[in-house]
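Hey team,

Filing this mostly as a record. A colleague (T.K.) asked me to run one chain through the structure pipeline before their review meeting, and I want the input and output archived in the tracker in case anyone asks later how it was produced. No errors, nothing strange. Just documentation.

Input sequence:
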Amino acid sequence: MPDTTLSDTAPLFRVGLGYDSHRLGAGGPLRIGGVDIDESADGVHAIGHSDADVLLHALTDALLGGVAAEDIGRLFPDDAEVNRDRDSKDFVAAAIEKVREAGYTIGNVDAVILAQRPKMAPHIDRMRAVIAAMLSCPLSAVGLKAKTGEGVDAVGRSEAIAARVIVMLIRR
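Output structure:
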């Protein structure tokens, strides 16, 4: 277990990087960034043990990585029944608690959703607002954009969806 106690020599800033991806399937719910996206928009859903929210999973790992804590898979195993269909906001909340325990606060977040479909642009503002509220930070501290796969790899063929997140943590 990593030592997450704050000392006088702890860095003023820390950075965390998170990544997640999920296969896409036909029909069903699609939740990204804590926002339910109308399945009729494109008829796809992310397949996973929990709610398969790739953006919140990547955010969780970025927060945990910033304080050198265990990753999301070790804290919330995908073979644990308690995590079946679980809301990914729970994972983010646990990661925020680890950040606070380590003596840090969130400076800013920057994220990219990688999805050929459905189009993310209509949902970006709501996602940013949900994430800012979860992190108790201003909306201006949450950057979010979406990119298509341009027909390349699993994302470009609409077989998968992914997210990358980086966070800046500031010592309190």
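Quick notes for T.K.: The chain is about 25% helix and 30% strand. Residues 54-66 form the longest helix (13 residues).
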